[in-house]
Amino acid sequence: MREPLFVKQNTAKWRDFEQSPTDDPDEQADRFIQITDDLAYAKTFYPKSKTTAYLNGLAAGLHQAIYKNKSEKSNRFLTFWKYELPLLFKKHQKQLLYSFLFFIVFCLIGVVSAKYDESFVRLIMGDQYIDMTNANIAKGDPFGVYKSGNELEMFFGIATNNIYVSLVTFVSGIIFSVGTVFFLFRNGIMLGSFQYYFFSKGLGAQSILVIWIHGTLEISSIIIAGAAGLILGNSFLFPKTFKRFESLKSGAKDAMKIAIGIIPILIVAAFFEGFVTRHTEMPLWLSISILSISLAFIVWYVIIYPNKIYKTKP
């Protein structure tokens, strides 16, 4: 059978499965069998077509719905981070890429602005912070700000602030994605100018070894929160075959899961900033190890692992 005819014969059924989900386990099982039959046929005769990719995604969604209805409630907490969240990263990998690219571009704008305008860093970071850091540099302790205050109080304060910033970045996506882009712009400009400031003082390498102990997880989480915001906004702007409200509900559900899913990462980042970053004289190998493990975890959990488990799905 030619692919256009195959699609024409089954479009109504596929659209019904996609737009009218059911909580009836028997109906879900029946739909899953029908879709996997169609997917097997498509893989055989049109292995590299968009139809096959579409059916694969539809089958994965039905599989996930069935899995969530299983009676193993005690494992729900574990399976969310083990399967559900990674599969959402895979499903919305384009938004993750867009958020990353937006953030990098905004960081570069911050770097260039700080380079050609000496007052820009003060505008972004504030006179008090710059004056304090200049004083610390003069004393030979450029990152002394991380040593001030009680570790536990810093941890709770930083964790609360990071979670707030990430949730605001996500929720602002409801303003047609523009709100999320604004917060990515704001944080990217701040990071770019902040990092350039230390490089301009000859402290670039040292700043990376100190600041990015917590910054690797923290900045990665902001980018992921940005992706969640784009998912939210784009679900309304580009509903595809769904009704706009149904698309928004689906996008909001996925985006909320992602925003909640990164909270443990933000808490670990806050722990590093409150308890670990303050030890600015730690051995070089230890600093590099923390940085490398944090970066490797983000790359593995957000990119590599989701692709791996996606390939094992029907």
UniProtKB/TrEMBL annotation:
<dbReference type="InterPro" id="IPR002798">
    <property type="entry name" value="SpoIIM-like"/>
</dbReference>
<feature type="transmembrane region" description="Helical">
    <location>
        <begin position="219"/>
        <end position="238"/>
    </location>
</feature>
<keyword id="KW-0472">Membrane</keyword>
<feature type="transmembrane region" description="Helical">
    <location>
        <begin position="282"/>
        <end position="304"/>
    </location>
</feature>
<protein>
    <submittedName>
        <fullName>Stage II sporulation protein M</fullName>
    </submittedName>
</protein>
<feature type="transmembrane region" description="Helical">
    <location>
        <begin position="196"/>
        <end position="213"/>
    </location>
</feature>
<dbReference type="Pfam" id="PF01944">
    <property type="entry name" value="SpoIIM"/>
</dbReference>
<feature type="transmembrane region" description="Helical">
    <location>
        <begin position="163"/>
        <end position="184"/>
    </location>
</feature>
<feature type="transmembrane region" description="Helical">
    <location>
        <begin position="258"/>
        <end position="276"/>
    </location>
</feature>
<keyword id="KW-1133">Transmembrane helix</keyword>
<feature type="transmembrane region" description="Helical">
    <location>
        <begin position="96"/>
        <end position="116"/>
    </location>
</feature>
<keyword id="KW-0812">Transmembrane</keyword>
